[in-house]
Amino acid sequence: MDGWLSVPIHESFNHDLAIRRFCPARVELERGEWEGTLNQIQSFCPADTITTPLAASEVDEFVDSFFNKNDDDDGNKSTEKQQDFRHFQGEIYPFSVSNDVYGDEMEMGASLEDLGVGETVPSVEDVSHGVDQGLHLVHLLLACAEAVGCRDTKLADSMLTQIWASVSPWGDSLQRVSYCFAMGLKSRLSLIHNLNANGTFTNGARDVSLITCQEKMEAFQLLHRTTPYIAFGFMAANEAICQVAQGKDSLHIIDLGMKLTLQYPSLIRTLASRPEGAPKLRITGLTNDQILLELEASLKVLLEDASSLGIDLEFNVISDSPTPSLLTRENLKLREGEALFVNSVMHLHKYAKESRGSLKAILQAIKKLGPTLLTVVEQDANHNGPFFLGRFLESLHYYSAVFDSLESSLPRNSPQRMKIERHHYAEEICNIVAREGSDRIERHERAEQWRRQLGRAGFQVMAFKCMSQARMMLSVYGCDGYTLASEKGCLLLGWRGRPIMLASAWQVNNVSSS
After folding, report:
1. Is residue 341 over pLDDT 70?
2. How far apart are CA 383 and CA 173, in angstroms?
């Protein structure tokens, strides 16, 4: 028995009710009331996201996946199970209002009692009579999310009270990740409580993060040092850059949303060892004012390392976010004869609005620069759906896998792990769960969505040739749960078969075909 991950599911508990009995009607309520009241979620919804209602077997699989991750001794069987769930996750939202339980269309005005809320969550007495508390906690979270989505504040508050008794930032991985989601639900609920009559927020309704920029940077560095998630992205991007940079004697890297210089020491060492000699290297980092001091300190070390290796390195910092107006040859001071590389590590998703217009404009601006290569590293998850409940389901499963991997890599009482979870992942979860409109910036998407968007913008994927290097990098972490896969040119890093990170490299069509 491995904690909450191998808990048997009690057969007498009808665990599909938490989603199936009233999920379609609640999502429809969200569409009509939540979006209409806040007027922040845009109306665009890609046609390929419309699906049929959830089947009972799919719901069973979703719940089972939280508790039976370690049941399969056969690695292939486990991977196959995760791939099946990956397909299910892609069809979570938007939900149809047609209900597979009642067989007809639910009425918009149906009450929570009419929809069977009272039967959804087992009582504490039921739990004590054989239903596992971990399963009970997952159902509480799902049902609370539905209540919040319906703006039933009384029911949501009641469920949150029960949830607080079962979660802890110091418990096992399920308790810790549930604590983060409960905080997100609490924050979203506070926005509902503070809505004005016209649907706008009152002053002070939005929570202000108490996490400092320095704490966020420290958590990012710890994540890079203790897990392969960030290092994997840096390694894949650097390998793609070096592959295309062969024979070129002057390189210019535009780093979108730069966080420190953690990616570049390895790149500089690789470029310095080229048989044809080291190239001239220019790096332009687009960042924000908050991390300038930390960035300047790491820049000094990087410049010293480059000089010692015989590389002529020039570094420029632009304190601004990447926008189409900024991404011009004049503003970036591009020079003739330079091979241009655009590098984005966990940044482009911030512009993936539901309408796609913002991301499309940035990709078009990048294409106009004529880059030799565009490298994109992102979290492989669908956290950008227009409906709250769908995002909640997807993100709960995704971050449960992440927290499980952290527990396998770091002791439960590890201060490093606590900082990573509280100062990095908890912030992401809260943004996904509690925010809407321009306030919601953690809009992660799947590899297939990135292929679609980049393809439409005029880029084509370039296959990686670094699978052996990636396997060697993973061996350093001494943990058997990490998995690697290649999918249509993208490299995927996962945990127990569940993709967590993706890395991809792209070339402008007319460049790659010439």
Report:
1. yes
2. 21
